[in-house]
Design a protein that fits this description.
about 30% strand; globular; Rossmann fold; about 240 residues; alpha/beta; seven-stranded mixed β-sheet; two-stranded antiparallel sheet
Length: about 240
């Protein structure tokens, strides 16, 4: 089923560049890279790697990275920008890797793209090694519950408030910006938490990261609405 990514691929590539969009550059990259550390992981799988930007950040830290994505134009760009990288066509719901293959599995704002996210989480848990980590960045459910409507503004364009509705439901919605139009999924945080716990993983880190840089006006809006969550889930070590 088309979720808009193939037709939006070039607009996405043009939008994010190497620095990422505003949220990645000023909010998520600092939070995610802080969890990577130095020498903590030998190899990693980036599930939904897109154009490969985060794969390249991991590789620069000495991690052997495999990226998978289901959107051919994004994979083509990843391979052009990183000819020595390992980028493969694949789906999160059926990872073609042996169990316990990776020290680290990353899902960087991809769970919102996946209809069958519970199967995807089980697959991520399967391919990570005992003692390894599944590192998640995702849209915050409070934000996705109001994303269709967006900010309520006054006549002068001032941001008044950001609505939240149907929070406990699970449903798809179409989101458009900068020539990109994709289908995302809203789910309450409890749905994700339950899926990770049912996959046998233990939560070891949780944050709703605030921006650490960027223009002041954008930072102020990002602090009013919780855009993202970052979670680290560990697979129990074999005793």
């Amino acid at each position: 089923m088309d979720n808009g990514w193939e037709s939006s691929a070039q607009a996405w590539i043009d939008s994010v560049g190497e620095r990422g969009d505003w949220g990645r550059e000023h909010v998520l990259d600092p939070a995610m890279l802080a969890r990577i550390g130095n020498g903590r992981f030998r190899n990693a799988l980036d599930v939904g790697c897109g154009e490969g930007r985060f794969c390249r950040l991991l590789a620069a830290r000495g991690i052997a990275v495999t990226g998978i994505d289901r959107t051919p134009p994004l994979l083509e760009t990843a391979r052009k920008r990183d000819p020595a990288g390992d980028y493969r066509f694949g789906r999160a719901e059926q990872l073609h890797f042996e169990s316990a293959s990776f020290d680290l599995v990353v899902s960087y704002v991809t769970l919102v793209d996946i209809a069958d996210f519970r199967t995807a989480i089980r697959e991520m848990a399967r391919v990570v090694r005992p003692g390894g980590v599944v590192l998640i960045a995702n849209l915050n459910g409070f934000t996705s519950a109001g994303a269709e409507q967006g900010w309520v503004k006054d006549e002068a364009g001032r941001h008044l408030h950001f609505p939240v509705d149907r929070y406990l439901d699970e449903y798809p919605f179409w989101f458009a910006w900068a020539g990109i139009r994709i289908e995302n999924w809203h789910r309450p945080l409890s749905a994700y938490m339950a899926a990770f716990l049912e996959a046998g993983l233990n939560l070891t880190f949780f944050a709703e990261p605030a921006p650490v840089s960027g223009d002041a006006a954008h930072q102020e809006r990002a602090r009013r609405v919780p855009w993202f969550v970052v979670m680290e889930w560990q697979k129990p070590a074999v005793s």
